[in-house]
Amino acid sequence: MKHGIRHLFIPGPTNVPERVRRALNVPMEDQRSPDLPALTLPLFRDLKKVFRNEDGRVFMYPSSGTGAWEAAIQNTLARGDKVLMSRFGQFSHLWVDMAIRLGLDVTAIDVEWGAGVPLDDYERVIAADKAHEIRAVFATQNETATGVASDIAGVRKLLDAHSHPAMIFVDGVSSIASIDFRQDEWGVDLAVAGSQKGFMLPAGLSFLSVSEKALAAHRDNRPKMERCYFSFADMLATNDQGYFPYTPPTQFFHGLRVALDMLFEEGLDDVFARHHRLAEGVRRGVAGMGLKLQAVAPRWHSDTVSAIRVPEGVDANAVLKIAYERYETSFGSGLAQLSGKVFRIGHLGDLNAGMCLTALSIAEMALVDAGARIDLGSGVAAAQDYYRDRSGEATGSR
Ligand code: PLP
After folding, report:
1. Class of domain 18-26+34-264
2. CB of residue 198 inside a 6 A radius of ligand 1
3. Catalyzes what (predicted)?
4. Is residue 257 a contact partner of residue 43, using CB atoms and an 8 Å limit?
């Protein structure tokens, strides 16, 4: 007989707040009712605030994030179009793989797993593309497999520096609504997010935020890929009235309403600050245990997920198994080439410092059980020292 809760410290799906869970629990309703737009139209409007996209629009697809990846490509590019991408972890690899499978002419720059979007290499390729043949530059803002965050504003800067007209595609699945993202300011044309990470919902809804330039690319006369389910045109024909070209997941919309309310009640900047603080505590905990992150330098540190390298001779998969079976806890696994070498703590969404301390404490036990020589409490103590509220000390009131 198990008691209490099973802890979920994976980088998505994240914990769904009770308020959101209750909002999801509504009777089925008529997706063509005259009432639906009163729910959906404000969602479209408010999603734009999260993406910081004033002039463009946001599409919602009943799919996981991968569907929005595909929608972005199919609606704006044609087979044979040249694109610039980089890969440095499982998810950036998969996006490159999709682009190749959809017939794009991909220049993919390989980067060590632990670093992020290679701005210098991008600049070299863009500078050499005098004929402006490259139609899009892709960037994974947060590589969830390695816990690496990249500089999206830097991609904008280098394109501007060379007056290059390529569109910017961003994978923000594990960053948007958790760490800073500014679509208009950074000139991002297509930004992908998923419901199950910073939006604190179950998996199953994806968001694609598009700029006016991306909509123009969708409309222009150049040939495009075939598309059907993800067609912008079909969405545009119905979304403005608050409806969808096929049966939408209306329960999700009630959950999304509350999730957005929660993000705005906290304030997006405070949401980002909370994620930074929680992440920093976890990083200090990792250092306190004497372990290293997969991210090779602080500039790449992700505020939503930490990929932690286990000591030599310890199997990270054993750590995961022990955490799950003995301590009722899920951590993220090491993906592809990182299998057995890292485990990941997801620290995004509906989370607080106490939960991060629990994660560190269970990680320590599982690591020791799996044969790691670390001192129990060393990571927790370092994180406690960081999280502790010292505000009372200055006034002597404690
Ligand atoms: N991109 C990133 C950065 C991700 O972390 C994930 C999933 O974890 C995906 C894309 C794929 O999204 P989904 O699993 O929602 O299709």
Report:
1. alpha beta
2. no
3. glyoxylate + L-serine = 3-hydroxypyruvate + glycine
4. yes
